[in-house]
Amino acid sequence: MSRARKKNSKKLLIIVIEIICLIALGCGIYKIIDTHMEQQQQEEAAEEAAAEAEEQAEAERQAEEERQKKEEELNQWNLLLVNPWKAMPDDFEVKTAEVEGGYVVDERIADAMKEMLADCREAGYSPQIISSFRTRETQQYLYDHTANKDDTAIPGHSEHECGLAADIIDSSSAGWADPLIDAQEELPAQKWLMEHCQDYGFILRYPKDKEEVTGIIYEPWHYRYVGKEHAKTIMGEGLCLEEYIENYDKY
Ligand SMILES: [Zn+2]
Known about the structure:
The protein has helices at 3-74, 110-122, 136-145, 159-162, 188-196, 211-214, 228-236, 241-246, and strands spanning 96-100, 103-106, 127-131, 165-170, 202-204, 222-225. The protein is of the alpha+beta class. The strands form two sheets. It has a four-stranded antiparallel sheet with strand order 3-4-6-5. β1 and β2 (103-106) form a beta hairpin. The longest helix is centred in the N-terminal third of the chain and has 72 residues, at 3-74. The N and C termini lie far apart (100 Å). The protein binds zinc ion. Zinc ion binds at residues 131, 160, 165, 167, 222.
């Protein structure tokens, strides 16, 4: 081999080595970058998972809070459920206040009832209370002396005893032998009350076609206080109190 060729082969060898070194270096750098990116991705994924878990825990906390709030609301006095199957609590005490004409109700609902009656009169109608709070003795007397026990609440099971309800008629029916009949719904004051009672926190407690659920006949005169928000939902959705309480988490 000539000297010149020998020199050329040496050069070529150096170039090859240099290329190999460069490739090796490149691979090394690539490996470092790749590892770093992988680490970063793992960290990001871990952060994302932690954020998701936190979000879920927060949603669960909120759902639990909401459930507790609803349960507390359900236990409030204004949503007290009393019907043929559920008696009023034994220790239930009523502080009464007069609405008008000697008729008294729970003092917490007296102003709302006064306002409802005043606005009904202002609109040109003539509502008249014919029954409001009853003592246990009065309810017992009514029950003992009624001709139809099916239509009179058993003592301890009447909303009148709770002071949260009143029977209101159109005064034009005051002279009827019995104003507490379905025809009451056709009278103007009654129509106004049925349309507006929820604005004052009242509901028509025993609606038509709900006798099976309430255990009480249709009574287009018995108004029960539940509070404005509840009343608007109950009247708006065409429910009775039993249905509303049973499905309270939906509303
Ligand atoms: Zn009544």
